[in-house]
Amino acid sequence: MNSFAGKTVVITGAAGGIGQSLSLWFGQRGARIIGIDKSVNAAAALTALEDNGIDAMFLRLDIGDIAAVAEAFGELDRVDVLINNAGYSNHHVLRLTTPESWAEEINGNLNGAFNCAHAAIERMKPQGGGAIINIASVNGQSALGDPAYSAGKAGMISLTRTLAQELGKHGIRANCVMPGTVRTPLWRERAQKDPEVLKTLERWYPLGRIVEPKEVAEVVGFLASDASSAVSGAVIPVDCGLSAGNIVMTRELTLEDL
Ligand SMILES: NC(=O)c1ccc[n+]([C@@H]2O[C@H](COP(=O)([O-])OP(=O)(O)OC[C@H]3O[C@@H](n4cnc5c(N)ncnc54)[C@H](O)[C@@H]3O)[C@@H](O)[C@H]2O)c1
């Protein structure tokens, strides 16, 4: 259970739904957690970790702010694992996207991930290695709304491959997971307002359900661990089978009840 004892794991977006699950998963396995989040919820997320006996610290900053990121990482003793998990979308269709909102969302999603990777690499190189895991999304490979966010996620997939290629010689691995819909507080709230919303969504998932936050953490944990020591540059869907194909269309084409 203490497979990450002595390791420092930096998790961006640590106050959010998946971020809290990631923090708990690594913390319960002995890691020191450095949470980065711009939200006021950071204080409550830290308390929740400490209540579970986890060694944790939170830094309140926007990862799109390169100077703030560089300063924060400069203060850390070491970084063994970086999980670029922070992400958001405020504009769900192109019609509502402005040049300003596009730039802002690319900055907060993609540039922020680069800023953190850039700073983390400088800590990892002298340590002899490390692991970077980018949390992208199925939106990074298909058009599913949220255009700036999706372009940012596609960029994170590309960034993962570049990091893997250029940093392997330093013992640094970089991998990416693409979650489908995850049962975070946001989706729980939506489902409370409209119980049909998840049923409608679940039709698109071959497993007939959406992803639990802990299931994302389990895959990220594998990618951060020595169990994946030869895995770098991988992009792994954690999406209950969504990326396998279009099951709704397959049902319509075959007239079979899959
Ligand atoms: N929930 C889903 O269904 C789903 C699906 C696919 C991918 N994802 C991805 O998983 C990650 C976590 O999502 P979540 O559902 O937990 O979202 P969430 O909104 O619950 O949490 C995201 C956290 O990131 C923080 N954050 C956002 N931008 C930031 C910035 N620029 N600087 C610092 N902190 C910032 C927010 O304050 C928030 O606490 C995101 O990257 C998201 O795109 C989520």
UniProtKB/TrEMBL annotation:
Pfam family, one: adh_short_C2
Organism encoding this protein: Devosia epidermidihirudinis
Ketoreductase domain segment(s): 7-190
Protein name: Ketoreductase domain-containing protein
Signal peptide interval: none
SMART domains: PKS_KR (SM00822)
Homology family: Belongs to the short-chain dehydrogenases/reductases (SDR) family.
Taxonomy of the source species: Bacteria, Pseudomonadati, Pseudomonadota, Alphaproteobacteria, Hyphomicrobiales
Top-rank taxon: Bacteria
One Gene Ontology MF term: oxidoreductase activity, acting on the CH-OH group of donors, NAD or NADP as acceptor
Record SUPFAM superfamilies: NAD(P)-binding Rossmann-fold domains
